[in-house]
Specification:
The complex is a heterotrimer. By secondary structure, chain A is mainly α. Chain A folds into two domains: 104 residues, no CATH class; 234 residues, MetI-like fold (Orthogonal Bundle), CATH 1.10.3720. Chain A contains 15 helices and no strands. Chain B has twelve helices and 15 strands. The longest helix of chain C is centred in the N-terminal third of the chain and has 37 residues. The radius of gyration of chain C is 23 Å and the shape is globular. The termini of chain C are close together. The chains are: A mainly alpha, B alpha/beta, C mainly alpha. Chains in contact: A-B, A-C, B-C. At the A-C interface, helix 4, helix 6, helix 7, helix 8 and helix 9 of A face helix 1, helix 2, helix 3, helix 4 and helix 5 of C.
Chain lengths: 353, 371, 312
């Protein structure tokens, strides 16, 4: 009798018919925020504590509600969703904080003079970083032009051609290279050029060489990882059409993975453009513009920012402001590169859908 | 081959941006002259070419001012100074990589011997150029005026005195209400001439309360370590109850301890530092023309501030290249001139060289010549 | 699972004839690989040459007076501790963010959100250092004080708390710095997972998490490990940020929230190098060599893990 009238318990799994309504997460969020606020109002309110407590209460509330209504599988799903979203929100905190620090401190000197003046003959207030901006662009461009082809071709070799002990050795060496501390790369460059040109030589190209040592392995590792993901069917289809292997690699394999390679290269650039330690020992310091990386000292944004911060002239605020603005310009430059890389890789990547 | 997205992207961008900048900065020769160009200079003759130096980072701010002044008088001269550290500066100078060095310590005896090869048979000479009072800076709410004896300072930095209301501190500060805040002593994490001079002061003036060897690296355990003068100043400013040591000019937002000298207390000022410099004695066994000084940490003058840093310019008495000799001589002359010292004082807050010392320096610089 | 796992293309694809273009291209690629060999030989030769005097010097001549290995052991501990903290915090977060961007966020938002995280990589390390000193470390002091008061019985949180320039702060800053590295690569890997399998899983009634668990993560595992190891490599070698943020007093301790911390190899080189001469320089280069070996071992382990998982 009773069997017939009682509605069957919702089966766990495939047959689940009961769902939490779509507004349930928002309601849970509102409830937990209010609850946490109330609890902390008793214990002494602070924003950070409130946010943390809200997140915890929200997760517990939603997951237990889901478990009661939708069953354990859905509950686990919601739990993981909360975790994943939480991870993203958590990462935004330092990002926003760093961005705010750099922008608010850097805005003070973000003016025309900063981009049109160097520091030659300037003491105290005023002056700019034209020399450092030029240096950063030149040195990074040279580094990229050397590292990216070598890096990508090495990855191609490892994935498409490399067999046996030579490939294993190169893989091994790329790994070893990833571990070179940046300052050691700088020292290596100094030792190399001292050997070639005598002691005390300081050139823009020395900085590029040091940065290449750091950049090449990053490009190789990320490109290699992406190339290995290209489905083998694509290659075979190409071979089946009689396309030579090298054209297959260039037109199919590299073309398919251009977006991923672009991301990897952009990250590699972002890594080396902000490097300070190796440039401190290879470039020397100068306050004037130098466009020639093969003759004389150069200044770059990271070293300029570092010296302005570490050894300020009076008034100290003027130097510190210059340091922050240099950092801001550096960040903007990297963002620009990022953007350009994205646009280019989108333009080149195969149209799939 | 559309192989490398970024080579394709970065290069034109770099070129465009580089060309976007004027081919020369507005303040450089060739551009419209708008830089600050009214600094006086006493460099006697027009100097040309490039003069490279390397060394102590403590001099960097002053060097920037000196370079600005010297190149103002001689527009064809380009002077560069790498603040890589005293040790690196001396090494580079001895290897012939740079024409002069800046150093927080004068050349050691074995370095003087090595220098004879580098100096074409001449000698290397130390010229005092930059004198800076080291402030013992603190961050303590409500205490604007703090007097400490060297013994107390040594015990604070050694971790023996741990709270601000310690009887030893109170004894020197009658009438000041000291909080029970814990003391957070801050020292330099990197090796530095500032640490060397501060520890030298502690070991010579504290009557045995400081038991560690003076040196460039901080010797005592405990305390907070921070990188560079800026790092120390930031660390002191960030934590209430902190005390540390830093160049006076860069610690202006913090309270400065008045240290006990004789029976009185003296704060870090340029004048008091100059007084202490007057009582420095020449180091023994130095070659002719070398002006290496040993600072008296317990001066007799009651208004002398003994916690000072003396930083040197190091050059040769003879250079193979005539232009190098002229440039070094001209630059050193400007740096130690009244105008040069004033430029450093306004840019880096340094203390001036005394008249007698300057006369001595002028004589030494006369000996610089082409071999 | 293993059917679509990409494998190396068979050595001699019989359908392909050798053409001049092939030979040239192969030659260029091989030359690039060999160029790496040459560069590295140069670096290694330089490192060994410079490090050798410190390795054979009598113990008393080494800073600290107790010999090279004692001097290095402490730094190795500090390096490992800070990097491990960074990885423990950064890797799960990074993978979580990558999943969020590829499989949870609304489609239209995915690309911009990915870009936002990439911005973290755009920030140079000295900026992280300055931010760490001026903003982050002071902000953490109340949290450390709370930890010391409530969890002080754990050796990790023994305190005493004075400023925020602690090992945990260094670990957190490093975690933020390696986050974009881990996220960016994991994201690419997750995005490349075969859509067919994911759709099949969903069609069978799997929840989103089950789909991710069975159709995304196994596929991307080796990529995630590789990404984490790249991140770990960066954390191990990070110089300027650690030099600025970490207060070093020497000694081996697991106390994460005091200012008495062991240093790290890279930061120690940056801090001590400028004023070092003679044997001091050799000593620092020798510690650099040790860092080199450690990072290599980490990478080697990663390779082994990747090789094992991709075989299955």
């Amino acid at each position: 009798m009773t069997q017939l009238t009682t509605p069957p318990r919702p089966a766990v799994g495939l047959g689940t018919t009961r769902h939490l309504p779509a507004w349930a997460p928002y309601a849970a969020l509102a409830v937990s925020a209010a609850f946490s606020g109330a609890v902390l109002a008793l214990a002494g309110f602070n924003t950070a504590g409130w946010l943390v407590l809200t997140a915890v209460v929200f997760t517990v509330l939603l997951v237990s509600a889901s478990r009661a209504v939708e069953g354990p599988r859905k509950a686990t799903d919601r739990f993981v969703t909360s975790l994943v979203v939480g991870a993203f929100l958590l990462a935004l905190i330092p990002l926003v904080s760093v961005a705010w620090t750099v922008v608010s401190n850097g805005a003070a000197r973000f003016d025309v003079e900063f981009f049109t003046y160097s520091m030659r003959g300037i003491v105290g207030e005023g002056g700019g970083a034209a020399h450092a901006i030029a240096g950063t662009l030149i040195i990074t461009a040279i580094t990229t032009v050397i590292s990216v082809p070598i890096g990508i071709l090495t990855a191609v070799y490892l994935v498409e051609y490399g067999r046996g002990s030579v490939a294993r050795t190169i893989t091994f060496l790329v790994d070893v290279m990833t571990g070179i501390p940046s300052i050691v790369a700088g020292l290596f460059s100094v030792a190399l050029f001292t050997l070639l040109l005598g002691p005390g030589v300081r050139l823009g190209i020395m900085g590029s060489v040091a940065l290449c040592v750091l950049m090449i392995p990053v490009v190789v590792r990320s490109t290699e990882e992406i190339l290995r993901l290209v489905p083998h069917e694509l290659r075979e289809a190409s071979y089946a059409l009689g396309v030579p292997k090298w054209r297959t690699v260039v037109k199919v394999v590299l073309r398919t993975s251009v977006a991923g390679i672009g991301t990897g290269v952009t990250l590699a650039i972002a890594r080396v453009i902000g490097e300070t330690a190796p440039l401190l020992v290879t470039l020397g310091v100068t306050s004037a513009i130098n466009y020639n990386p093969f003759d004389g000292r150069m200044s770059t944004l990271p070293t300029f920012a570092w010296f302005s911060y570490a050894t300020p002239t009076l008034p100290v605020e003027a130097s510190i402001d210059r340091a922050w603005t240099a950092a801001l310009v550096l960040v903007i430059l990297v963002m620009l590169f990022n953007l350009i890389a994205r646009i280019v890789s989108r333009a080149f990547s195969p149209k799939t859908r | 081959m559309k192989r490398s997205t970024l080579a394709a992207a970065a290069l034109p961008a770099a070129v465009v941006l580089t060309l976007g900048l004027s081919s020369c900065a507005a303040n450089e020769p060739g551009g419209s002259d708008a830089g600050s160009t009214d600094t006086a200079s006493s460099a006697a003759t027009e100097l040309t070419g490039t003069l490279n130096g390397a060394g102590a980072s403590s001099q960097q701010a002053a060097q920037q001012a000196w370079i600005a002044g010297a190149t103002d008088a001689s527009p064809d001269l380009q002077v560069n100074y790498d603040p890589q550290g005293s040790g690196a500066g001396r090494t580079q100078f001895l290897s012939g990589a740079v024409q002069f060095a800046g150093s927080d310590a004068y050349l050691k005896d074995d370095e003087l011997t090595q220098a004879q090869t580098r100096c074409e048979g001449g000698n290397a000479i130390d010229i005092p150029a930059y004198v800076s009072p080291i402030a013992i800076a603190y961050n303590l709410e409500g205490v604007d005026d703090l007097k400490l004896s060297p013994e107390t300072i040594a015990q604070i930095f050694d971790g023996k005195i741990t709270t601000w209301n310690d009887p030893a501190i109170a004894a020197d500060n009658a009438g000041v209400s000291l909080p029970a805040t814990a003391i957070n002593p801050v020292h330099r994490a990197d090796e530095s001439g500032t640490t060397a001079n501060f520890t030298d002061y502690l070991s010579k003036a504290s009557n045995g309360a400081w038991t560690y060897e003076p040196g460039q690296e901080w010797p005592a355990p405990g305390g907070e370590a921070a990188q560079g003068t800026s790092g120390v100043v930031a660390a002191i400013g960030a934590t209430a109850g902190s005390i540390g040591y830093a160049d006076e000019s860069q610690a202006q937002d913090l309270g400065h301890v008045q240290v006990k000298v004789g029976d009185g207390f003296v704060g870090p000022t340029a004048e008091a530092a100059a007084k202490a410099l007057d009582e420095a004695t020449p180091a023994s066994g130095r070659p002719a023309g070398d002006i290496a000084l040993d600072i008296n940490r317990t001066p007799s003058a009651s208004d002398a501030y003994p916690v000072i840093l003396v930083s040197y310019l190091i050059g040769c008495t003879s250079y193979a290249d005539a232009a190098d000799a002229a440039n070094v001589k001209g630059y050193f002359t400007y740096v130690t001139s009244e105008a040069g010292q004033e430029a450093a004082a306004s840019a880096a807050g340094s203390a001036p060289l005394s008249e007698s010392l300057r006369t001595q320096i002028t004589t030494s610089l006369e000996s610089i010549q082409t071999s | 699972m293993s059917t679509t796992t990409p494998t190396r293309p068979p050595a001699a694809t019989n359908a392909v004839r050798q053409r001049p273009g092939d030979r040239i291209f192969k030659g260029v690629a091989t030359a690039s690989g060999l160029a790496i060999l040459v560069i590295l030989a140069g670096v290694a030769a330089f490192l060994l040459y410079q490090a050798y005097p410190a390795l054979v010097a009598p113990a008393a001549d080494i800073a600290g007076g107790e010999g090279f290995w004692k001097y290095t052991a402490e730094l190795v501990f500090g390096t490992a501790l800070s990097a491990a903290l960074a990885l423990v915090i950064g890797a799960p977060l990074g993978v979580g963010i990558a999943l969020f961007i590829t499989h949870y966020a609304p489609r239209k938002l995915a690309a911009p959100l990915g870009y936002v995280i990439d911005l973290l990589a755009a920030i140079p390390s000295i900026v992280y250092g300055l931010w760490g000193v001026f903003v982050f470390a002071p902000a953490l002091v109340p949290i450390y004080a709370w930890l010391a008061d409530n969890l002080g019985w754990l050796p990790l949180f023994a305190g005493p708390v004075s400023s925020g320039r602690t090992m945990l702060t260094a670990g957190l800053v490093l975690a933020v710095m390696i986050l974009p590295v881990i996220t960016a690569l994991s994201r690419e890997v997750f995005r490349q997972t075969p859509t067919l399998q994911q759709e099949a899983a969903l069609a069978l009634g799997a929840t989103r998490w089950e789909m991710v668990k069975y159709a995304v993560i196994p596929y991307g595992k080796s990529g995630v490990v590789a990404a984490s190891m790249l991140g770990l490599g960066r954390a191990l070698g990070e110089t300027m940020a650690v030099a600025a943020v970490l207060s070093v007093a020497g000694g081996v301790t697991f106390n994460l929230i005091s200012t008495q911390n062991p240093g790290t190899i890279a930061a120690n080189i940056a801090l001590q190098f400028p004023e070092s001469t003679g044997l001091g320089v050799n000593l620092l280069v020798a510690t650099g060599l040790v860092l080199f070996v450690i990072t290599f071992l980490v990478n080697f382990a990663a390779r082994a893990i990747v090789a094992r998982t991709s075989k299955g």
